[in-house]
């Protein structure tokens, strides 16, 4: 009421003060016209009142719009940025799930299975797929290649693109690029949290450079993938014996699939969908139930997939940093220094990936199980197996594409890849997990403690204590979250698959949980058998992995920090 009365008073004052101005303008207009004086005296009051009414209506609409914007701003300021983002994400996932549950997105094959009673497709499945697509995870309770039609698959692709690029970031980019609308404080705060860097003043430039680069990369990779699918000699599904699939033999082929070789329409669909999924680090595919396994010897496809995964998961601030560095190499530009964030992101990524690759090689080579990965002849020669391990290790950082059956990996390798997914990739990107920056800060703190230093120093910079405390908090909550989720999901999975004669262990459950939290989308065959309660747990993990633990905690916290007017007496405690 207070704000409304103020706006009414301001509107009345402006209207009254503008009346004389309109009257003078009208007199000037009539003097310049060819009308006679008699006509002016007759029609002046009537025309003037008409113009005054129009002006009052327009002014009231403008003031009402300002009042409405002020109410929205006050509401937004009350709930905070994080809660607003979470609310919009929830609404978007809800809308996507309703469309996926609508039969218009289902294939005739799915409807036949539902009518015959062979499968039960409920609303939880639609919510699960919607959350998985929007959070760029890639987990699925059913194969979208055969259960969804072209419209449903296009909806999944759009959801991945919105979630990967950032729905608020993409909105700001479109309005800036197409309409030239400037970035206001409201949009700046939202995009700063969603995909921005540490400096709020660079948010506009970071968004413009990063999304432009990602869209160009998406266009190029789409063309490359279309050509690969159209010309690739691999993927000969019709020549395979798909019926025998067990835990002993690896069979990359399956029944419900069409070979894209020589089929331009199918190659076009596969190429664009796969490019979007790779850039956004989603891991979804419409190839079949076994991801890229039919192309496990198509190294060009796998190599371009890894490049797309890296570009999409490295984060907007890193892309902008590299752009500024390349631009500064010109003679006219000043030398630009790479930020500490970019250095830690890239170095930690390489170190973690190297050790993950090393341990996976060791565990698979020393495995004496005759049914193990290295003993499977269907995986090809030693080079093919080596490249498969290389592809899977780097794919665990933020994507979910696979060319093998993870059931053939040793328990140790599965555990290593679970740790890689738990760590994740870069902040301000499509990756999930606790992020590699968190791990790097904790590792640097341990090194500093071993060296007897009081501060955490790296690249001639000092890490603040608040940053270290946040890193430890994120790591600790991540461990607790994964532990509790694994224990709960252990009771919600069907740990024995009678069709393939596979028996799953606790390590496989941990693998799926870390896959959801790390926004990877890997599965060993457990997700389709999960019940509704387990789906809710995995949905929560996928959303937390997308938002990040730090942002998720702020959803339930207070918007403003309370000022501390007093401090207690300092006292140390003994640690272990």
TrEMBL record:
Q: Name one GO biological process term.
A: metal ion transport
Major location category of this protein: membrane
User: What residues form the membrane-spanning segments?
Assistant: 42-60, 81-103, 123-142, 154-174, 206-231, 299-323, 344-366, 437-456, 468-496, 508-530, 536-556
Q: What is this protein called?
A: Trk-type K+ transport system membrane component
Localization recorded for this chain is: Cell membrane
Taxonomy, superkingdom: Bacteria
> What keywords does the record list, in alphabetical order?
Cell membrane, Ion transport, Membrane, Transmembrane, Transmembrane helix, Transport
* Membrane topology, from the record: Multi-pass membrane protein
Q: Name one Pfam family in it.
A: TrkH
- Key word Transmembrane helix present in the record? yes
GO cellular component annotations, sorted alphabetically? plasma membrane
GO MF annotations, alphabetized = monoatomic cation transmembrane transporter activity
Q: Which InterPro entries match?
A: Cat_transpt (IPR003445)
User: RNA-binding: is it a keyword of this entry?
Assistant: no
